[in-house]
């Protein structure tokens, strides 16, 4: 018999064999994890750590300047605190006193009147000017900048002082209304008309919502207007049936934002109404935040002011919730939902 020939594989043949470079399977047929897989969680942790480090300035600012003061203010709302002595816990006495205060109820009425009248007028002016600027005209960039400028300077103290001078006795507005046949007298000294001077100032600052409206109008397809015009729809019909439904999300955003801003009005009301009284003659410009300032810093009733601030927060939250609930009925999105 011939001797059996034993073939010894060479290293090259062994390396070329499929699966030769793979690690041997563990008992039970389970292959051990690769080294790259073990390093992936470590890399993810490093990325998360880097993200938190970049966010740390904002987190620190939020905790120290927003969340922290809000928590302290919530505690002060249930205490008797005057900024000089240690706060003393009194429970719900601040809220009971607040609801029974006639000036507090007046501030709620003045603020509600300002929000209900000023916000729609401001948005109407912004939408009207945006419709005009949406048309192709020469010098369009200049007009956009000119109409937007009041939003940049309207909240300044200097503009509020000038506005107060314009509506004073014998000033430009007084002389203009006399020419038109109205009774003489400035608006600043009249408790019934000073609030309208404040509303006129906020309407004048329509630049910010105007820019947002203009951006929404640019997204409306021109084909819709052309098709409606071919069907015989007039300008008003095209506005109500095409423009408003198409820009309803932008309109909702502006309504929400301007309503919240109206509740927070303070600087212009305090400056325009500061004429012997911090909040206008006979509390004509006694908006909510103005009375909050009077209680907190002029009367040193910081506990009561904190309670008023939290009531304002709850009121704004309630109005915001109602607006979000109502959007299902009149806000139309591209997907067809409401």
Automatic annotation (TrEMBL):
Keyword Cell membrane: yes
Annotated transmembrane regions: 49-78, 113-133, 145-166, 194-217, 238-257, 307-325
GO biological process assignments: transmembrane transport
Signal peptide: none
Bilayer topology: Multi-pass membrane protein
Biased composition (Low complexity): 1-36
InterPro entries to which the protein is assigned, alphabetical: ABC_transporter_permease, MetI-like, MetI-like_sf
Location within or outside the cell: Cell membrane
Keyword Transmembrane helix among record annotations: yes
GO CC terms, sorted: plasma membrane
ABC transmembrane type-1 domain residues: 108-323
Region called Disordered, residue ranges: 1-42
Keywords for the protein's UniProt record, in alphabetical order: Cell membrane, Membrane, Transmembrane, Transmembrane helix, Transport
Entry's family note: Belongs to the binding-protein-dependent transport system permease family.
Name of this chain's protein: ABC transporter permease
Species assigned in the record: Streptomyces filamentosus
